[in-house]
Amino acid sequence: MAIYVRKRKKVHSISPLRLFVTRNIFYIASIVFVLLFLIGIYRLSIYLKTSEYFSVKRIYVFGTRYSFAEDIRDLSGISVGDNIFSFSSARSAEQIKNHPWVKRVSVNKHLPDTVTIEVVEYRPVILINFSQLYLVDESGLVFKRLSEDELFDFPIISGISKEDYLGDIPVYRQKILSLIELKDKFSRLFPDLTLSEILLEKSGDVTLITGKNIFEIRLGQRDYDKKLQRLRIILDQANRSSLNPEIVYLDTNREDMYAMKYKQKK
After folding, report:
1. CATH code, 132
2. In whole angstroms, what is the distance from residue 91 CA to residue 76 CA?
3. At 136, phi and psi to the nearest 5?
4. For the chain, what is the domain count?
5. Most confident of 31-45, 206-220, 239-253
6. Average of pLDDT values for 17-46?
7. How far is 150 from 34, CA to CA, in rounded Å?
8. Would residue 40 count as lying in a domain?
9. Quick one: which of 79, 68, 75 has its CA closest to 95?
10. Which of 2, 44, 52, 104 falls between 20 and 30 A from 154, CA-CA?
C-alpha cells in the first residue's frame, strides 16, 4: 500500500504597509498629483506676482471731461511699476467712485502690463440753489456742490430747500426733472432769450425769470406747453409794438386770458 505525503506550499507573508499601498495605489497617486499641482500653482503665483514682466507700464483713463485723469489715477491706488496681479480691479473702481463727478467706472487689466480706467461722468444740465449752488444731472439728481473754479452758464432752480430735497429725494427728483424739461422747451421756443432762474413756489406755481432784459413769466401749475406757445405770440406782438414786458401773467383762471406789466420807458 502506497502512502502519498502532500507537501505544504510555502506561504509568503505581505507586510501591512505593502498591502495598504497595493490596495490604495489609485488614491495615493491622486493625492500625490494634487500636491504637486498645488505646489506648481503656488510657485506660479509667486512668479506672476514678482516678475517684472507683469509690472504695470501704462495706465489709460478714458471718459473724463469735467474731472482730471490724474485725480482718477490717484484714487484708483494703481501706480506704474505695480504688479498687475497685486490689486483688485473692483476695489480700485469703488475707490474711484468717491470722486464727485464719477457716475460709473470700470477698471480693466490688459496683460501683461496695461490698465484701462473707463469713466462715465454725471452730465450737469441745471443748477439748484440750496443756499449754495449745486449741480443737477439730466435725471434730476443733485450730485455735487458747485466749486469756485467751476463755471457753468445754467439756469438756477430756486424755491426748494436742501432739507426738503434730502427728506424725500425721489419726489423732488421728479419735480426737478419736470423743471428741466420745461427749461428745454423754453430754450427751443425762445432761442433769443436767456433763462436765468426757475422759481418753484411752495404752492407749486412756477415762475420763469429771463437773464438779459430781465422779466418774469408766471406760468402757474399746469399746461406749460400751451402757455409757452401763447407766450411766443405775446412777445412777438410786444416786440412789434416796441414794448418791454416786466411781468407776463399766464397763471390766470382762463386759458385764453393773460396779463402783462410793461416796463416804463425812460
Report:
1. 3.40.50.11690
2. 8
3. -125, 135
4. 2
5. 206-220
6. 70
7. 60
8. no
9. 75
10. 104
Model confidence at 257: pLDDT above 80: no
Average pLDDT, the chain: 87
Report the 10 Å Cβ neighbour count for 8: 6
pLDDT digit string, tens, across residues 162-174: 999 999 999 999 9
Same domain, 74 and 162: no
Please name the amino acid found at residue 262. Y
Taking the C-alpha atoms of residue 186 and residue 180, their distance in angstroms, rounded to an integer, is: 10
Arithmetic mean of pLDDT, 134-159: 96
Looking at the DSSP bridge assignments, the partners of residue 245 are 262
pTM: 0.79
Domain that holds residue 68: 52-121
C-alpha cell at 70: 490724474
pLDDT at residue 222 in the model: 86
